[in-house]
Amino acid sequence: MKLFFGLLGLVALLLGAATSAVAQTAAAGDFIVALVNSEPITNAELDLQIKQLLEQRNQQGAPLAPTPELRSGVLERLINERAQLQLARDTGVRADAAAIDQAELNLATQNQMDLTQFRQALEKRGITTSTLREQLRDQILLTRLHEREVDSRVRITDADVNNAWLARQAAIEDPLAQEINLAQILVAVPENPSPAQVAQAQASAQQILARVRGGEAFETLVQQLSAADRNNGGQLGLRRADRYPPSFVAATQTLAVGELSDWVRSDAGFHLLKVVDRRAPALVQSITQTRARHILLRPGAQLSQPQALARLAAERDHILAGQVAFEAVARDISQDGSAAQGGDLGWATPGMYVPEFEQVLDRLKPGEISQPTVSRFGVHLMQVLERRRVELTAAQVREGLRNELRAKRSEEAYATWERDIRSRAFVEIREPQ
Questions:
Q1: SS3 label, residue 352
Q2: I need a labelling partner for 136 at 20 to 30 A (CA). Which of 45, 332, 398, 403 fits?
Q3: Residue 383 in 3-state DSSP?
């Protein structure tokens, strides 16, 4: 499912953006850049979305330039989003206050703040609580609309899974679906070579082959003689066979790892190939399971959320200082059924926990203790005990295939549905494109 700029942008802004200057500039000379069914999109909105996207990509290490194409793309996304929000409201989709409260709380937790600190940090950057909650409301409306209009209509049958299973089996036997890593020694020939130049190169190639078969290290001869890239022993990298030249695949497809091909002729010259690695697609897959423990406090009339956060922060300090054991604190104060086991949750596979809990857990190293974390169940202190790789059963692999198919079809259905909503909206663009 698509992610919208609003929610992601708020996180980017909190992590260091200064939006007040943008807001002030926009307020001084704002104007309408587009109408969607008579509802305006202003230049201030567009500029802010662009700024948020640029900062988000900057933090991810993939900076973008503020090009006209980027501006046009962000405007198109805003138009699509506005049309979908109108449809959501017109068809009775609602975002209740409790859902907005939880979304706001999740954002605060992701930024390791309580709700008051989070709101204060945003207000310092020119974002009011009401603006934040409006964006969260819109995100919830869009998510619920997509679940109703797209996700609920995607059906994956047992026959679909069977076909995917058979296709995966066929891929195992397809040489072009295998991944191989080849290393090469290249004896180059000039462009438009004469017969004498080809013969000379071929003679040099045969001498090199004789030396390799005589026991000299392939990697040493790469460094001494290859006209191709000599880094990493001449390796070309692990990739699907269909991403290599067909002549390379034909010359090596019957070779075992470590074996050499005969010389392969190309426009560049003569290639001696060594099979470094070969991997076939596997039907049996493995996943990482995590064994963790936690301490849970449930805020209520006797314990506010800030008090729960402060209590667990203090307990974390005591545990790290060696003054008390994690499991002892869990037995004493945890309000979860795991308290009797010292908070031990047992082995869990990905997706077993709610996202706001699992996302924090995934970032922890074995033995590491989290900061107090808020989920829909309360406030947690978590510790990863260990991780392990386990092979999936055939039934689990089939369920994974079902999920892959559902995700793919949901994306396809969403793209079609989005185009349809866009085509039915009256859109007037008022700025040069």
A1: coil
A2: 403
A3: strand
CATH number reported for the structural domain that contains residue 315 in this entry: 3.10.50.40
429 in a domain, yes or no?
no
Tens of pLDDT, residue by residue over 25-78, are: 444 568 999 999 999 999 988 988 888 888 777 765 667 778 888 899 999 999
> Nearest-CA neighbor of 383 among 363, 367, 360?
367
Q: Is residue 428 part of a domain?
A: no
Q: Going by C-beta distance under 8 Å and a sequence separation of 6 or more, which residues neighbour residue 275? A: 180, 181, 182, 252, 255, 256, 257, 258, 259
Beta bridge partners of 310: none
pTM for the whole structure = 0.54
List, as one string, the DSSP characters of 5-33: HHHHHHHHHHTT---HHHHHHHHHS--EE
**What region does 351 belong to: left with phi over 0, alpha with psi -120 to 50, or beta?**
left
Q: Which amino acid is at 219?
A: E
What is the residue whose two structure tokens read 């689990």? Answer: 396
Tell me, what CATH number does 45's domain have? 1.10.4030.10
Instruction: Tell me the CA distances in angstroms from 271 to 48, 186, 321, 384, one per residue in order.
Output: 54, 5, 62, 50
Sheet holding 427-429, edge to edge: 39-42, 32-36, 427-429
**Token output for 286:** 């493995």
Residues 59 and 189 reside in one and the same domain: no
Please give the tally of structural domains in the chain: 3
What is the C-alpha separation between 84 and 89, in angstroms, rounded? 9
User: Do 138 and 68 fall within a single domain?
Assistant: yes
